[in-house]
Amino acid sequence: MSDDYWDVIAPIWDDVNIYDGEEMFLKSFDVLTNKQQILLAGHWANSEIMNGGLGQFFDNSTGVLAPEAVFAFQTLGMPKTSNILKQAMLFFGDDYPRDRTKRLEVFEAYYKSHGENAVPMETEEDAMAVAIEEERGGFDSAADAYSVSEV
């Protein structure tokens, strides 16, 4: 058996709809195994955050799975990473909006109030970059270990 987490999610990669809102996402996500859910949510969050930061993750369609990503990081043995993401979600209020349009409205209001060069979630942004690369050997290491676990 391979120790690459991608082997677990590759077969279902195109089956999960993150682009058409919460209902379509949850409908397609809920049919996955628990292991596929954890690894897919963690992968999307890791990829987006490491590519363009928390802003990119929340700004893009991937933000729909933020609650699942929090759970994924926790399950992968990355509680610090999970907590940072959970804290960053509070930028959008107590009730996290899975709807991308609502998240974009929050960003727009923030930039209008703080200026176009302001960095939302700056504290979490810096902490997340370190945690996701270092905690439990980094996301790839944690995900690979989880992919071959008996969970």
List keywords for this structure.
151 residues, mainly alpha, 8 helices, globular
Description:
The radius of gyration is 15 Å and the shape is globular. The chain is built from eight helices and no strands. It is mostly helical. The mean pLDDT is 95. It has helices at residues 6-9, 21-29, 34-59, 66-75, 79-89, 100-114, 122-134, 139-147.
Cα end-to-end separation: 15 Å
Strand content: under 5%
Compressed to H and E, one letter per element, the order equals HHHHHHHH
Q: Would you identify the regions where 5 or more consecutive residues have pLDDT less than 50?
A: none
**Main β-sheet, in a few words?**
none
Number of strands: 0
Count the DSSP helices: 8
Outline the secondary-structure elements.
Layout: H1 6-9, H2 21-29, H3 34-59, H4 66-75, H5 79-89, H6 100-114, H7 122-134, H8 139-147
Task: Give a brief description.
By secondary structure, the protein is mainly α. The protein has helices at residues 6-9, 21-29, 34-59, 66-75, 79-89, 100-114, 122-134, 139-147. The model has no long low-confidence stretch (mean pLDDT 95).
